[in-house]
Write a structure and sequence with these properties.
The protein has 759 residues and is α+β, with helices and mostly antiparallel strands. It has 26 helices and 28 strands. A 7-stranded mixed sheet has the order 14-26-25-24-15-22-23, with helices on both faces. A 6-stranded antiparallel sheet has the order 6-5-7-13-8-11, with no helix packed on it. A 6-stranded antiparallel sheet has the order 16-21-20-19-18-17. Strand 17 and strand 18 form a beta hairpin. Helix 11 (348-376) runs antiparallel to helix 12 (381-394) and helix 13 (397-403) runs parallel beside helix 26 (719-738). It is elongated, with a radius of gyration of 35 Å. It is found in: Cell membrane. This is P-type Cu(+) transporter. Keywords: ATP-binding, Cell membrane, Copper, Copper transport, Ion transport, Membrane, Metal-binding, Nucleotide-binding, Phosphoprotein, Translocase, Transmembrane, Transmembrane helix, Transport.
């Protein structure tokens, strides 16, 4: 079974790695995915070998707290988050006030002492207790760093909190030691003038500023991370909390959780559809832009399906609920985006390995730094201590831990906003390296809807022909019916009608007998002109319907599946991105050739069955190509699964969510290009974040250790500057990921790019 857990106490990549390690090693765990950003984990385990309580206990042994994740409504979740933010902000404000007071007081006293401003100078026995009074509230308000840090240290799984706790605690201990020594010298005399020197090396302000500045950085980091989840929040906001249900002829307002399958809900103008269902009475003009991206309202009538998250613009109707809870279209999309945001890219595995050893290595470097400087400075404890503390607090496992997940979260969220549903971080990462894109034809490159493309009939015959075709449900007949509707061709009464499977139809209107069908049905009546037309249209992949009236050839109707408006430009863009483009279709080679030429695709194969499509994908992969398969997600399922990245192209609730890695809601090939470009932006951002995180630590740690403090550079850092640098590094990584919010999808309909939100 799969279970989601809430995890408390995680602050950095080391925390995430330790929780993952603690759970993954349990017998019965198939897979464990821990999210540092959302502070949760999803565990796939054998319930016969393991229980939820045992998983929670394993997390607690690692130094953290876990509990079963409870799904909450959007408003309830926002209330809790706002309360948490308010509490954290208030604590931070008080912390910064005392931190500022502590820094000002310490700096003022040191300057006054150095420049002999006797009227500002105070006795150390007064100054130091004041510092302690100002420091205590800072430590008390942020005591979680110490409890979490030392608990992790005791369990031999140190994390970022451990570094902060060790640095601050050591500063406090050294400050107390110096203060006690000053009291001793005051009582017993100070022949060597050590009191003045010791009073300059009280590290209480360092302890306070380390905690204060790190808390400031963590606050900005958490607010920035919240912004990365804005797309998921917007999705959740689409679902109303209540519905107006018809019960015993009366209208009753119910919480969505209380609505059951089969309940009837009334919808009025301005109402948002709470659950999926089918209209039983009435009508509505539905704004489905939040799901399909189509700006034009869709007319819905009796027996039509309505989709959760969409809005009724006009009309009133009652619909019967067909799906509830996680099975609704909107909730499936929300779940998909959340799972993708929490999943791990392959590149993140490197971070996990580094994170497990990062903090222990930093602590070791700090100890080595202290020992080396004790030798270099000839046992100058103050100098050695300063460099060792700086090493501890400047090291930033947070930047490493946030480098990948925040970029994935923003990227998948931005994809959802633009109608591109990405199911996993791995799919998003793989898409950037795709060099070959394979398209199915029908419904992918073409509209998948048969339309009248050519017609050669006398005007007076159109009404009769359309009237006969209106009697059939065949797709070709529907194409003729749609043509008649668009051109306002009137229908007549039909005297008799017969459908001939595989050939066409026979019928009579008044005294005239008609045959309307393929070449097989009408072969004996065709003229040379008819044969010529047939050859010409067949070469274009079109279906030809001949019309015979009273035994005489009258004319023909050409029917074809036309190219989507954006397909040609999408193919051109893929070529500009250096991607090879292929087309596979079950249609005959003539149809394949015609559509391929229209869409400028050089590589195409016709008469291909679904299993043969799979063989083509395998062959391309054997040639060393990275293949993306784009199909309708139903009959192309084997190919979609086999490809390095499978894209299902479909609209709304009809999308095939199971077989593909990525779902393009709009059925628009422009989104194939957009998805590839988005993946390139995300991967580039991840690599940039990881480079910055590794580069920062590679430069910052030697700098903090005093490697550049020698002439002629003389560059040194104190713990306060080090803690500020550490805080800024993780914020920088998150802000870099937030740049992905400026991504814009291609919109060929407006002949320009747009960032219009879809979901």
């Amino acid at each position: 079974m799969e279970e989601k857990f809430k995890v408390e106490g995680m602050t950095c990549a080391s925390c995430q790695a330790h929780v993952n390690q603690a759970v993954s090693k349990l017998k019965g765990v198939v897979d464990c995915n821990v999210s540092l950003v959302e502070k949760n984990m999803v565990v796939n385990f054998d319930e016969n070998q393991l229980s939820e309580d045992q998983i929670c206990q394993a997390v607690e042994k690692a130094g953290y707290k876990a509990s079963i994740f409870i799904e909450k409504s959007y408003k309830e979740m926002m209330r809790e988050k706002q309360a948490e933010i308010t509490k954290r902000r208030n604590r931070l404000i008080v912390t910064l006030i005392f931190t500022a007071a502590l820094m000002i007081f310490c700096m003022w006293h040191m300057f006054a002492s150095d420049f002999n401003w006797w009227f500002f100078t105070m006795d150390p026995l007064i100054v130091i207790p004041v510092q302690i009074v100002l420091l205590v509230p800072i430590l008390a308000l942020n005591f979680g760093y110490f409890t979490r840090g030392f608990k992790a240290l005791i369990t031999l799984k140190p994390n970022m909190d451990s570094l902060i706790a060790i640095g601050s605690f050591a500063s406090v201990v050294y400050g107390l030691y110096s203060f006690i020594y000053i009291i001793y010298l005051t009582i017993n005399g100070d022949p060597n003038g050590m009191i003045h020197s010791l009073s300059h090396n009280i590290y209480f302000e360092s302890a306070g500023t380390i905690v204060g500045l790190v808390s400031l950085g963590k606050y900005f980091e958490s607010r920035s991370v919240d912004k990365t989840m804005s797309s998921i929040y917007r999705l959740m906001e689409l679902s109303p909390e209540e519905a107006n249900v018809i019960e015993n002829g009366k209208e009753v307002t119910k919480k969505i959780e209380k609505v059951a399958i089969g309940d009837k809900i009334i919808i009025r103008p301005g109402n948002r559809i709470p659950l999926d269902g089918i209209i039983e009475s009435g009508y509505g003009e539905m704004d489905e832009s939040s799901i399909s991206g189509e700006a034009i309202p869709v007319y819905k009538k009796e027996n039509d399906k309505v989709i959760s998250g969409t809005i009724c613009k006009q009309g009133t109707f009652v619909f019967k609920v067909t799906t509830i809870g996680k099975d609704t279209t909107l909730n499936k999309i929300i779940t998909m985006v959340q799972e993708a945001a929490n999943s791990k890219a392959k590149i993140a595995k490197l971070v996990d390995k580094v994170a497990l050893i990062f903090v222990p290595v930093v602590i070791l470097i700090a100890l080595i730094t202290f020992g080396v400087w004790m030798i270099i400075s000839k046992a100058d404890v103050n100098t050695s201590f300063n460099y060792a503390i700086s090493v501890l607090v400047i090291s930033c496992p947070c930047a490493l831990g946030l480098a990948t997940p925040v970029a994935i979260m923003v990227g998948t969220g931005k994809g959802a906003e633009n109608g591109i549903l990405i199911k996993s971080a791995e799919a998003l990462e793989n898409l950037a390296s795709i060099d070959t894109v394979v398209f199915d034809k029908t419904g992918t490159i073409t509209k998948g809807i048969m339309e009248v493309s050519d017609i050669s009939l006398p005007q007076e015959e159109l009404s009769n022909i359309c009237s006969l075709e209106n009697c059939s449900d065949h797709p070709l007949s529907k194409a003729v019916y749609n043509y008649a509707s668009k051109n306002n061709i009137p229908f007549k009464d039909v005297s008799s009608f017969t459908y001939v499977p595989g050939e066409g139809i026979k019928g009579q209107i008044e005294d005239d007998a008609y045959l309307i069908g393929n070449k097989k049905m009408c072969l004996n009546y065709l003229t040379a002109d008819a044969e010529k037309a047939y050859q010409n249209l067949s070469n274009q992949g079109k279906t030809v319907m001949f019309v015979i009236k009273n035994g005489n050839y009258v004319g023909y109707i050409g029917i074809s599946d036309s190219l989507k408006e954006t397909s040609l430009q999408a193919v051109r863009d893929l070529k500009n991105l250096d991607r090879d483009v292929y087309m596979l279709t079950g249609d005959n080679i003539n149809a394949a050739k015609y559509i391929a030429s229209k869409s400028e695709i050089e590589h195409y194969i016709g008469d291909v069955k679904p299993d043969q499509k799979l063989d083509v994908i395998k062959k391309l992969q054997q040639e060393g190509k990275k293949v993306c398969m784009v199909g309708d997600g139903i009959n192309d399922s084997p190919s979609l699964i086999q490809a390095d990245v499978g894209m299902a192209i479909g609209a709304g609730s009809d999308v095939a969510l199971d077989s593909a890695d990525i779902v393009l809601i709009r059925s628009d090939l422009a989104d194939v290009v957009s998805a590839i470009e988005l993946s390139k932006h995300v991967v580039r951002t991840i690599k940039g974040n990881l480079f910055w995180a590794f580069f920062y630590n590679a430069i910052a740690i030697p700098l903090a250790a005093g490697c550049l403090s020698f002439a002629p550079l003389n560059i040194t850092l104190n713990p306060m500057i080090a803690s500020l640098a550490m805080a800024l590094s993780s914020v920088t990584v998150v802000l870099n990921a937030l740049r992905l919010n400026f991504f814009k999808r291609k919109n060929y309909n407006n002949d320009k790019e747009t960032s219009k939100n879809v979901i």
